[in-house]
Each structure stands twice: as C-alpha cells, then as structure tokens.
Amino acid sequence: MATININYDKLGAGYLFPEIARRAKAFAEKHPGVELHRLGIGDTTQPLAPSVVRALQDAAERLSKGDTYTGYGDYEGEKFLREAIRDAYRERKVEIELDEIFVSDGAKSDSGNIQTIFGPENIIAVQDPAYPVYVDTNVMAGRTESFNTVTGQYAGIVYMPCHEHNDFFPELPSEKVDLIYLCSPNNPTGAVATKQQLTQFVEYARQLKAVIIFDAAYSAFISDARLPRSIYEIPGADECAIEVNSFSKSAGFTGVRLGWSVVPKSLITEDAPASKLNALWYRRQSTFFNGASNIVQYGGAAALSPKGRRECQAIVDYYMQNARIIRDGLTSLGLACFGGDNAPYIWAKTPNGVRSWDFFDKLLREAHVVTTPGSGFGPAGEGFIRFSAFGRRESTERAMASIRAHLKT
Amino acid sequence: MATININYDKLGAGYLFPEIARRAKAFAEKHPGVELHRLGIGDTTQPLAPSVVRALQDAAERLSKGDTYTGYGDYEGEKFLREAIRDAYRERKVEIELDEIFVSDGAKSDSGNIQTIFGPENIIAVQDPAYPVYVDTNVMAGRTESFNTVTGQYAGIVYMPCHEHNDFFPELPSEKVDLIYLCSPNNPTGAVATKQQLTQFVEYARQLKAVIIFDAAYSAFISDARLPRSIYEIPGADECAIEVNSFSKSAGFTGVRLGWSVVPKSLITEDAPASKLNALWYRRQSTFFNGASNIVQYGGAAALSPKGRRECQAIVDYYMQNARIIRDGLTSLGLACFGGDNAPYIWAKTPNGVRSWDFFDKLLREAHVVTTPGSGFGPAGEGFIRFSAFGRRESTERAMASIRAHLKT
Fold first, then answer.
1. For A228, B31, B150, B355, which has the most beta carbons within 10 A of its beta carbon?
2. B80 — contact with chain A (CB < 8 Å)?
3. Res B409: pLDDT
C-alpha cells in the first residue's frame, strides 16, 4: 500500500506564481476585453540576442547530420560552456575549476535540488522575504513543521528579516543554522549585498561550518563595479559557499532553460572533507539528471561570447530602463521604493500599511496591473509589493500610466 | 554546522555508466590508435529527423522576434505538445487528459524524481536486473540500508528476479511492496511484457493499493501489435500506475532532452483520493522545475507529427536492423541471446558462466568493444552482458566482426 509524502501537506499555500496566474486569469475571464499589464512574475519579454539564435540554429543543423550528431553529453555540461563560464568568473578575479561547474536546466532546479545532498537534520536559514523555492523545497523534504497561518512561518526554519532599517540585508542569525540561503541581487527586494555584508556571512559560515547557498541569478543586472557579482569574490567563500546562477534573466532564457551551479572542491563541512560535497553533487546530478539540452548549451556559450555579451547587455539595459520608469512612476505617487538600481525588481511599500494581497487585488482590479504581493515571499514582505522590470517598454509605460490614473483617485 | 545526506554513502558503486566510461577511457589512453566500438551505453547515433530540425530552427527564429518571443511556459509543458502526446495515446485506445500529462527534460529525471511524492516508509520493488536509476534514487532518498557487497543487493528493496525461466518478466512479489518499478520494453534485458503479464501486476497493485511506475521509454521499438506500448492499455491501470516516457530513443533526443510522465487523476492509494497524486506531482514539478526547454518542445511536437513519425520510424527501423546484426552475430558464436526483437537491447549470456565484468573487460581488451555488464543492473544480471543497438551501422558491423575474430580464438 503506497503512501504519500505527507510533508507536501505542510505547505502553506500553492506555489506563489500559479496563485497569481490564477487570480489574473479569473479577473481576465470576468472582464473580457480589459487589457492586463503584467509586472508580476519576472518573465522576460525581449527576444533572444542574434548570436544566440544563430548558435541555436547551427546546433540544430549539426544534429541533422550523421558526422556532427551527438547524443548524451557530460552530465555536468559541455566543456566549451563550462570553459566560457569559468572565463566569465575569471574576469571578476575568481578562479573556478571546470569540474566545479555543473550546468543545469536552470537556477530554480539547482536551488531546489541542492538541499538533497544535505541531511534531514540541517536547520535552514532564509532571508525573509525570499524566493519561495528555498523554503518550499525544504518543507517538501521534511525539514520543517506545518505552515503556521498566524506567523506566516514554518517552525524549523530560521527567518532572517530584511527590513528597511537593515537595508534589506539580514543580520547574522542568533540561533544555530546549517544551510543559509542568500540571494543577491535580491529577489524580491532588489537589494544588492555589499562585499562587507557578504564577508560577515562568509566568516560566520566558516566559523560554524555552515554552508551558504548563494543565488546570483540576477548578477548581470549589477552595474555598480564595487558590488560583488559572485560570492567567490569574498575571500574564503570557496570553503563555505555553493553558488547558483542562470541564463534566464541575463540572456532571456526563461523558456529556453539553462543555468549552472558551482560546488567548489574546497567546500567543507564538519563531516565532509574537501571534494566530498562536490562529489555528492556530481552523484546527484548524474543519477537524477541527464544534462541540459545540447542545443541550449550552444546558445548559452554564444551568450557568453564577446558579441553575445554585448547583445545581452543591451537587453539588460533595456530592462533597467524599465526599472527606472517603474521606480520614478511609483515614487512620484508618493510610494516608498527600494531596489531597481542594480536589480530588475522594485520593492514598493504599500500606501497606509495596506496588506500585500489587498494591494495586489486593488492594482489588478482598478489599474489592471498584475504585480507580486510581498507577503508571498515571507512574512517580512507583508506591506510590500514587487514590480518586475521584465515587461515590454510600452506595456510598462501603459501600466504606470494606469497606476497613476487610478491610484490618484 | 552543515551535515551531508549520509544515504549517499550507502551507494554500492558509482553510477554504472560513468564507471563504464572510466574503464573505456583508461583503455583508450593506454592504447592510443586503437579504435573502440561502442555498444555499451544506449546512446543514439543517428541524426535528428528533418522535420524535427526544422521545428527546432523555427522555434529559435520565433524567439528572435519581439512579437513571437515567449518566456516561461506552463510547468507541465506546452499545450500543443501535450495534445500531441494525448493523441498518440488515443491511437492505442488510451484516453489521457491534458492535465494528466507532465512534460519534462527526460525519463531519467522523472523516474528519479517520482519517488519524492511518496513517503519514506514505502517499500519499493524492482525488476532484477533493472535500470540503476530506480534503485539509486531510492537509496539516496533513504529507503534502504547500505549496499551488501555479498548479495549485490540493498536491504529494504524487494528484488524481483528476471531469469531465462520466467522469460525475464518477474513473478508477483511474495512480500509487501508499495511502489513497483516495471520497464517494458525492458532495459537491459530487451524483454517486452505481454498484456497478460501486465494485467497480473495491475490486478495485484489495485488489490494492495500499490503504485506501479511504468517506464515505457523504449515503447517505440515495439513492432508486434499484440504487445502493449502503454500500461494504460490494461484495464484498471489508470487507478494504480504512473507512466514515464521519452523522446530520447524514439526521436534521437538523448542530448536534446525531452520526456513526459502521466499521473492519472484516477490514481489512488490508501491515503490519497483521486486527483491527489496528480496534484502532488504538479506541486513537485512546479516547485523544483521550470518546464522543459520551449525550443525542444517544438522539436518534440514535430517528432509526433505524421511526417515526423514516419521519419522517426525510419530511424527506429535502422536501429532494429542493428539489433538483428548483433543478435545474429552473437548467436552464430554460440552465445544465448535474448531481446532485440521489439527492443533495442540484446541480452547475451556470457560463455561458460564467466562473470559480467570479466566478460566486459575481455570484450574491451580483446575485441575493443564497449558493452554493459549485466551485473551492473542488479545481481540477477550476473553472467549476462548488454549490447546496445544504437550504434552506427558500420561501427556495429565492425564491432561484430571484431568479436567474431577474437572470441573464436
């Protein structure tokens, strides 16, 4: 008699984005003809860079011929792509070896799966608010109690609040934690950790033999040269941190699917000497996964070529111009806004302490704008709302015009 | 202080195929200039079908333009692809609804991940020999004790031996089991389950509220119309079976990556009413996964179009001709051979009861042919060796010539 994984029943609500999609769809069905402006989910809208498209088509062409067709690739990704990733790190003066890089189908998969190489007894710490995958995957793995609807938290998880007064970067946890999820540039707050802030966490993790899981999926949006794009820019991070990154936002691969993680061989824990965690992740990936699509990997390498990078940078710049439009528009309405400088998200305080989902519904109903309620990312996100800069320019402008027209009344 | 998942240390050996690659590589490095014939891993060698290539290139083209670019797709896969999959089932008189189909990056991912929606207390049963992913993923999830090097088994798993005397299809387990992995056409034995054989298991599973995980990744190789290509051709299977399938072998997508699973809403267990397991798998996929590559999904739909199917069938026929060449060659040397009729694998008995790895090494050393040792798939595979029909014709022929030349001496 088969029995289900009862940890799934501990989950507080559906995964955030399907719930937003459900509400938007319900509204659209009730109001046919009304145009919805989507500034919710961080979904890219700009076409792929020309060099990427050419590389994808050339890869398909190669697979059409007997002498250039290839089947299974390396579980950890094609060498040419791992070399291109290594070279990109090198520009930041970070040395990563090829067998420390694991290409995947996206940062979501890696941030979800990485916890499986750690034991069930590990206490995880997350920024609050945070990308829901960190929490949800640990709930499903059984590392928590049920969702507490009063606190909006799961017992068993250490929440590290990110507020206005700490510049949306958490203080060190005061209790014992083992796995620490950090995301910078942050989704959802748009805050970017400084070297000093990360150094504090790296020193803490090394001291306690904790492991930091660093999500750098938005690193391409950092233009301020002083801000670290990789946690490995912090000395000692290779001993205590795993980094996850993605082509989704930097190259428009949200639907194309490509990412990577770095598990340094020098990463250690109390019970795992050097190379062990690297080997565990290789074992996990080679057993549960058969590598990212070969065609897509060629596209990823093209995105990292000098020409591809210039083209992708233009797309990033386009989105960052959206970010300015959103931020300026909201600010002019008197909303306090954060992020949006080195990140594609604007984190806006709702007016008069209105609750996130209420403000979400109000924006949907009155201005026909889909956003993401801050509380969906954790209890400390209550009273905030996230705007995504990944829309089309004209759609972003129309959305802001609509908000201006309706929120003033 | 982070601690590792100690279940990984229970694993008996490295994942089988990397170990084969390691031995082949070591041989090649020691003997430069010697040509290796690869009949080991089931890696496709024939180019993609023309309609598939065109669809992949068109998809890349669409992503290059602002008005046809798309980002995130549905977690469960593009509707057009799920419709094509549903229609293919319909031809076998099997009715599957669209929200029962979950597109993925491959059958390996699905066969590995599916166990996560079940509780840790479930006893799993596997065919012995079996594709290693079923066992390894359950070991890593903690459902077993350590590997016993004497028995070649993990305590906690029920092995269902597949021998010559049961036509390589197991008897019903005599002890309590909860999750039953079945693979047909079988990897590695090449045996194909009859309707009668599957009916026995479906009745057993329904009676005990066990769940069958049916791996049909090789169904395209069945030419005998009487043999079931899907477990849902068996009445009642929708109440007790999950099916996993793939484009890897039918359309040459081993490197391109695409597969799907079916979790019927009518599937029930003692603690899960109708729709529950379907919802759990949706939750798992939407939390840990962001959908298969959109480009690749267009390629998959093209493979299921009438023209694509004719083209893919020609590729399947090509491999099945290889299977005949291998089987005839081995038989003429006096080796007892199984499979290869409705499956791309030939399961050969080693001569004089030689052990699998020894025969593997002998074939590698003397005939320069890479195969797969039967014992790598489980203890009942001892004394057998698997030949893959996925090589190029000339390479397959040269491999057989080399075996004939060297095994005779």
1. A228
2. no
3. 45
Q: Is B104 helix (H, G, I), strand (E, B) or coil?
A: strand
Q: Residue A40 above 90 pLDDT?
A: no
Using an 8 Å CB-CB cutoff, list chain A residues near B48: 60, 63-64, 69
Interface of B with A in 180-209 (CB under 8 A): 208-209
Residue pLDDT, tens place only, A214-245? 999 999 999 999 999 999 999 999 999 999 99
Contacts (Cβ under 8 Å, ≥6 apart) of A310: none
Range with the poorest average pLDDT among A18-27, A200-209, A250-259, B378-387: A18-27
A113-151 pLDDT, tens digit each: 999 999 999 999 999 999 999 999 999 999 999 999 888
d(CA A251, CA B124): 42
Q: What percent of chain B has pLDDT over 90?
A: 94
- Domain A14-48+308-407 superfamily per CATH: Aspartate Aminotransferase, domain 1 (3.90.1150.10)
Residues of A in Cβ contact (< 8 Å) with B78: none
A15 touches chain B (CB under 8 A): yes
Is residue A333 within 8 A of residue A324, CB to CB? The reply is no
pLDDT of residue A409: 45
Q: Which residues of B touch A6 (CB under 8 A)?
A: 119
From CA B82, how far away is CA B90, in angstroms rounded?
A: 12
Residue B217 has pLDDT above 50, yes or no: yes
Dump pLDDT digits (tens) for B12-26: 866 677 789 889 999
Residues of B in contact with A137 (CB under 8 A): 287-288
B276 interfaces chain A, CB cutoff of 8 Å: yes
CB contact under 8 A, B287 and A46: no
Closest by CA to A73, choosing from A304, A305, A297, is A297
Cβ distance A47 to B57 less than 8 Å, yes or no, reads: no
A-B contacts at Cβ under 8 angstroms: 278
pTM for the model stands at 0.96
CATH T-level fold of B14-47+308-408: Aspartate Aminotransferase, domain 1 (3.90.1150)
On whether any CB of chain B is under 8 Å from the CB of A64, the answer is: yes
B167: number of Cβ within 10 Å: 15
Among the partner-chain residues A4, A71, A283, the one whose CB lies closest to the CB of B280 is A4
> Averaged over A379-392, what is the pLDDT?
96
B275 Cβ under 8 Å from any chain A Cβ? no
Residue B309 CA to residue B12 CA, distance in Å, equals: 40
Phi-psi region of B252 (alpha: psi -120 to 50; beta: other; left: phi over 0): left
A337 inside 8 A of chain B by CB: no
Q: What is the pLDDT of residue B157?
A: 97
Q: Which residue, among B240, B251, B220, has the nearest Cα to B81 in the 3D structure?
A: B251
Task: Give the pLDDT confidence of B139-195 residue by residue, as tens digits.
Answer: 999 999 999 988 889 999 999 999 999 999 999 999 989 999 999 999 999 999 999
Domain spans in chain A, listed from the N-terminal domain onward: 14-48+308-407, 53-305
B302 touches A: beta carbon within 8 Å: no
Q: What digits encode the pLDDT tens for the residues B316-333?
A: 999 999 999 999 999 999
Probe site for chain B from A113, A207, A269, A295 (most B CB atoms < 10 A): A295
Per mean pLDDT, which range of A120-129, A144-153, A154-163, B287-296 is the poorest? A144-153
**Amino acid occupying residue B198:** L
pLDDT value for A349: 97
Which residues of B are less than 8 Å from A296 in CB distance? 293, 295-296
Domain A53-305 has CATH 3.40.640.10: yes
Q: What is the CA radius of gyration of chain A?
A: 21
Show which of residues 235-254 on chain B sit within 8 Å of chain A, judged by CB atoms. 252, 254
